[in-house]
Design goal:
- Helix content is 54%, strand content 16%.
- It is α+β, with helices and mostly antiparallel strands.
- The chain folds into 2 domains: 2-182, Beta-Lactamase; 186-243, Arc Repressor Mutant, subunit A.
- A hairpin with an 8-residue loop joins β4 and β5 (138-146).
- α1 packs antiparallel against α2 and α6 crosses α8 (231-243).
- The radius of gyration is 27 Å and the shape is elongated.
- Pfam families: ANTAR.
């Protein structure tokens, strides 16, 4: 059935290799705008719950994808005024349906902006996002919008939007895990590279001074502190100075 096919397509966007959160959100919004009956634009937003000192909770946009720039402008207005279907959905954690914004009375400050941006009718579905670390403070809202009033078959599109939001949330969780793994791998590579260059610099100092490894590292740290630099940067400079093809003098492990 086309509904399941569209949901699978949207869910697959977060599974692609090297897909970033921003790219996945943009692709999801475009896919929904093209695939959902009656939809002319779509908006997918990731929010984070922030708890204030007084215990109050507000929702902050961390990223979003909009199939059309007008919808992004409408989101900014909703976010600024705290009025509109998208902020209502994330605040109440319930699906928000708008048959015609001109017949709406819930968000008087949003009506004129919605008309200007071509947002006459919409269905917005919130969904929790959680990672392997138990992070439960993020929420996704998946909204389909139309420039026509009464554009959506409520029975079909309400269920479809909920399904798309669920698949999108699962896809973004996968994308987040992949990004976390990539960051951890990059951090490990940097750490290993730093360890290698420090060991090389220690070897140079040990050879020059006839000292042991601990004394050589202490010399590196002393130079780093005196020059307000990181130990790895001092080590990198020393290695470059003493292993380059133009080396013209003996190593100076004291950094002078």
């Amino acid at each position: 059935m086309w509904i399941e096919h569209l949901a699978r397509d949207i869910g697959a966007l977060g599974q692609e290799e090297h897909t970033t959160l921003e790219r996945a959100l943009d692709q999801m919004s475009r896919a929904a705008s093209l695939g959902v009956p009656g939809c002319s634009a779509a908006l997918v937003v990731v929010w984070r719950e922030v708890v204030g000192r007084d215990g109050s909770i507000r929702h902050v946009v961390t990223d979003y994808g909009a199939s059309h720039s007008d919808l992004a402008e409408a989101l900014e207005h909703q976010y600024t005024t705290d009025q509109g279907p998208t902020v209502e959905a994330v605040r109440e954690m319930t699906q928000v349906r708008v048959a015609d914004v001109l017949r709406e009375h819930r968000w008087p400050r949003y009506t004129s902006m919605a008309v200007q941006c071509g947002d006459r009718s919409s269905v917005t579905q919130p969904s929790k996002l959680s990672g392997d670390d138990g992070d439960e403070d993020r929420i996704l809202t998946f909204g389909v919008h139309s420039g026509r009033a009464d554009a959506f078959d409520e029975e079909v599109v309400s269920q479809l939007t909920a399904l798309l939001a669920e698949h999108a949330a699962m896809a973004l969780n996968t994308a987040d895990r992949r990004a976390d793994a990539a960051r951890e791998s990059a951090h490990m590579r940097r750490a290993m590279s730093a360890r290698t260059v420090i060991d090389q610099a220690k070897g140079i100092i040990m050879h020059a001074r006839g000292c042991d490894a601990d004394t050589a590292f202490a010399a590196l740290r002393q130079v780093a502190q005196r020059n307000r630099k990181k130990v790895v940067d001092v080590a990198r400079d020393l290695v470059a100075e003493n292993t380059g093809p133009q080396r013209s003098r003996r190593p100076r492990p004291d950094g002078r």
